[in-house]
Amino acid sequence: MLKTKIIAFIFALNSFLLISQSKFSGLILDSNSSPLEGVTILLKSNTNLLTISDSNGEFILENISDGNYTLTISHLGYKTIIEDLNISENFTKNYTLNPDLLNLHTVVVTGNFTPKPQLESSTSISTLNTSEFKQITPQGTASLLQNIPGTFADASAGEVFTRVYTRGISAAAEDDLGWYYVSLQEDGLPVSLVQHSYYGSDLFHRADITTQKVEALRGGSASITAMNAPGGIYNFISKKHSATLSGEIQAQTGIQGDGNPIYRTDAFVTSGLGNNWFFSAGGHYRHNEGARNTDFTFSKGGQFKFNLIKENSRGYFKLYGKYLNDKTNRYNGVAATNWNDPTPTFGFDFNNTALMMPEFNANIPDGRNLSTTNSFDPSQGAHAKDLAVGFDFLQDLGNNWSVKNNIKLSFKDANWQTSISNAFVSISDPTVYYLVSNGNPFPVGQIVFKDANTGNELATINNSGIFAGTGSQYISGALPNDAVMGTSTWYKDNDANEIMQQLNFRKEFSDHDLNFGLASGFSDTSVFTQGSFAFSTYENNPRMLQVTLENPGDDVLYLSDEYGVSNYGGLFFTNSRADVSQIAVFANDQWKISNKLLLDLGLRFESIKHKGSNDMFEPYTATGGLDGDETTAYDNNILQPTGERNAFNFTYNYLSYSGGLNYKLNEDAALFGRFSKGHKAPELNYYFNNFSNVPINDKGEIQDITQIELGLKSSLKDFSFTTTLFWSELKNIGSTNFEFDSDNGSIFYTPIQNNTSRTIGLEWESVYSPIDVLAFRFNGVLQNPKASKWTVYDAAGTVDTSDDSTTDYSGNQLAFNPKLLFNLSAEFNKNKFSSFIKWQYMGKREGNVANAFQLDPYSTFNAGIGYKINKNLSANLLASNIFNSEGLANFFGANTFGANANGATQEYIEANPDASFVVVPILPRATMLQLNYVF
Length: 935
Hints:
This protein is mainly beta. The chain folds into two domains: 19-98, Sandwich (Immunoglobulin-like), CATH 2.60.40; 120-423 and 487-934, Beta Barrel (Maltoporin, Chain A). It starts with a helix and ends with a strand. Residues 1-19 have low confidence and may be disordered.
């Protein structure tokens, strides 16, 4: 009898447990009653249950214990639904999501210590999602960010060597450190911890189909949420995982510029593995002949990324990684004349001229060890490798405590083999002969120029007259434009082993949300730079020149090697290393003063240590040069270490703070304001560039950044907008110029000037959708950027300081910042058809702080059409810069070797009205056909 009762009790208990397990299912539709795929459905109680709607908009959660839950339904581009549910037995409910035109109800994580809807954030933040990605031709990270309101993005050089900044916080980002003030991130951590010349975060970043969205924060809370990047954060967030096998494959092909092809394939796949394990993986590969004409493939390579995730009732654990192996290059400027209306000259073309050295394969002695050589081939460009692995977790600790930590280890390598400078150097200019070996010896007499590839003689000249003022005279033949290209083989080896992490503890109270933690990063980095003069023709599609001195009765003196390379390793030499540590502690409290008013206060103390050294160097001057042969002049002046090093060991400590208020006018509108005081410690270029062969006695200046902003956000049924009025000031800007001394052939940086800039402006972002199938978007910035205190050091073209001076340009317009910048677009989506057209306007900019040269405003138009062939397959045709606008993005100054933008003063222009100068045009037209298969 007892056994029977026990069996009956167990049976009854099991029956009760079975009955108490419920199922929750439903259907997700948009406002047109069409099913929505990929919607996230989250049930939260003591445990978290998550699923994603399928292609029919359906979802199901099974084995749910009866009880009370908080339901959250979210999808990018739609307003989030949050409601309390009591679930018992089988529960079914359908939902309709209303459009969220500016994603103001979408949760954002960038610039916020805790995820929150954008509408409740007291920051100026924008998002780009996957539907907007499909309107952008794949031309690099900066090109994509041109679509972010208030962001100046210069992608004229290609995929790397780009410039991105906001709100006039730009001064140190005008040349080879284009991301100086902003943080480029992947899933919340910086792509790279350090920067210096030709080594920036964009070198190791490629946007592809694995990206779900980009969150862009302009200034503000970046001072307390980013590592040494107070100017803003651009965070590329990866696609979410799915419980079912799904993914996407994208194939693209197209042409750019003068019919140059590009081929690219992207793929992404995700699936559940059972027992709350999930994985996702993807990446891309491309082959790109380039937007401008070169005799080599401009870009090739790709990357692979993966995530492995384990979810539990308290959060998740994620292992992730990336392998990037990619080669690309960057475009130099193009010569122009007519200071008031720049026009290409010397037979060049703003759309198609690349003016880069052609492909060849030379072996140049390595200045660090003269018994070895470095292979140099301009077709290799910038070869970037990045192997990264990370671990991210979030866990609920109970009692409203939680902890999140994200840690990443990476191994980076970047090798540059490309040309630097492409200036006009007349055959009557002594510079071209002096640079053969820094005047050791100076070749005088009959100079023979041969095509290095074919061996055919192009010209023979007599340069004896340059000392008598009559210049060089042709004996036979001629060189294009009577000149050679003033260029150098630019060889750089960069390595960095890095580890970085962000640890955050969170405690939630009834009216307070407290976050505090530790961010740290450590980098062991090194850089080697070597430059040699190279002879090539000054024309479209330059040819390398083998050059000799052939005076009657004398031995032939080889001024270049067989490939046209001269003055082996004699122009540049840098061999440096550094250990960098960045440690920050932070605290932030969000105080819910009332149901409508939120106060956000944060502090961040950061300590950055730079410890390293630069090699001292001297020329190798043995008789006959490195090979001991007095008939080869090209190896007579190789720069090599002396064995001494100039060490540096400096620590930069600073406290940043930021406070914001958010007042909720109603469920769809809010006012916000913020005051931020941030700082920027120097990057490694301060030591590597400014102290060539001299001791480093002083640390660099910490730049101070103050920002005030006031904004309004509103999300209505058919019209949404955000607008932000801002004021920003940047102090202690260390400004220097890159100079060339033609008397002794040395290249140097001028003494640093500490300057100040100030910008006031208005940013806006808006969408108007009068009917469901049509939307108009308008975003941009109107600003007044000023160089409020600014001096420029004038070295008078020589290293000798006795004739130096400084010029005061205080009160002038800040260079390279437009007063007006906007994007205006129209989008049409109905059934299976979609289309868009976009107008991008770049306003007038000053080409230098002297305000002597202006870069005119320009417009580009982009357009595209798409068709959904069936449930899985779709096609898109995209075109950028449809009308081949010849807009100018940058200005490098006079068209002479070693010149810079600040040298083109009003006095110089008036004295040289017919002189040529160097500008950098925007990229020409590109068209792409995309095929997308979703499964």
